[in-house]
Write a structure and sequence with these properties.
Mean pLDDT: 83
Strand content: under 5%
Number of helices: 10
Radius of gyration: 21 Å
Shape: globular
Distance between the termini: 68 Å
Structural class: mainly alpha
Low-confidence stretches: 90-94
Strand order of the largest sheet: 1-4
Largest sheet: 2 strands, parallel
Order of helices and strands: HEEEHHHHHEHHHH
């Protein structure tokens, strides 16, 4: 009762008043901003990768970058859609929609994408291109890790524009507390923006500085280790403000941490181990040149 009165007195921001739309209406269908976010992240990542491989010590050539662009795009779409259709659909039947309507996989405007599924797809794409081209998987992963935060930034901003994945109920005095259409009458944390800032913008700055202003790229595994640790730390922090999935709220109350936080702990350990391994070995002199 007191919380409701305080929230009303503070006049929190209403998401609905921001005039945001979840896509562009083309008449015959709506082009979702979430799909555009993935496209923007992939194109910007590809553009930046082509710049990176022109710097000394690149472990891959332009033809490998072109292959990575194709296979990583495929891995993101198929992996993301497979993960979403397998784990986030089915309702009361328990049968994922993938198995009953496989044709919906490529309908990016219908449903969502799974981050973990897309990540697995990208790892498989890197492994395939590296194996086929005789490249170092770890060094190629280093270069790709620098480009991933672009997609994270756009994706989380798209979540906010869609008015989805909002955060926990916020203190009514928080200036940016926001009421979301499906989040009830109380103001909440716009946790999508927190994620965009930490998983996206902050990691972009860190990874770009490491690549362009240091010799981190000559220590195999250092960049991907920093990325893994950074995204795990960012997710662990933001989970304090994210609304847990309805089916996992009891779990969070019993254990003191959300499922997302528990899952990031192994990532932190893995990332730190990769960083320690990279720093324990002597750096490469310049990197073995790759035939164009």
């Amino acid at each position: 009762m007191i919380l409701s009165a305080a929230a009303a007195a503070h006049n929190p921001i209403h998401w609905a008043d921001l005039g945001l739309r979840n896509g562009i209406d083309l008449g015959f269908f709506t082009l979702r901003y979430y799909s555009l976010a993935y496209l923007a992240g992939i194109l910007l990542g590809y553009w930046h990768l082509t710049r990176m491989i022109k710097a000394p010590g690149a472990p891959l050539a332009q033809r490998h970058a072109d292959d990575l662009f194709f296979y990583c795009t495929l891995g993101i779409i198929l992996g993301g859609r497979l993960g979403y259709a397998t784990f986030y659909t089915g309702g009361d039947t328990g049968i994922p929609s993938l198995w009953s309507h496989p044709g919906e996989l490529l309908s990016l405007w219908n449903g969502g994408m799974s981050f973990h599924g897309g990540l697995i797809g990208v790892i498989l794409a890197i492994a395939w291109v590296s194996w086929r081209g005789g490249l170092s998987f770890l060094r190629v992963a280093d270069y790709i890790s620098v480009c991933v935060p672009f997609g994270m930034l756009f994706g989380r901003l798209a979540n906010f524009v869609n008015g989805e994945l909002w955060g926990r109920v916020a203190d009514p005095s928080l200036p940016w507390a926001m009421i979301f259409p499906d989040g009830g009458p109380l103001p909440r944390h716009p946790s999508q923006l927190y994620e965009a800032a930490l998983e996206g913008l902050a990691l972009i700055i860190v990874m770009l500085l490491l690549f362009w202003k240091t010799r981190a790229r000559f220590r195999p595994g250092l960049l991907v280790g920093v990325f893994t640790t950074g995204i795990a730390l960012a997710r662990f922090f933001v989970e304090f403000f994210r609304e847990p999935d309805a089916q996992l709220q009891d779990f969070a109350m019993r254990t003191g941490l959300s499922m997302g936080q528990w899952l990031t702990i192994p990532l932190m350990i893995l990332g730190l181990a990769i960083v320690a391994r990279a720093l324990s070995k002597p750096p490469l002199a310049t990197g073995r040149p790759v035939p164009a």
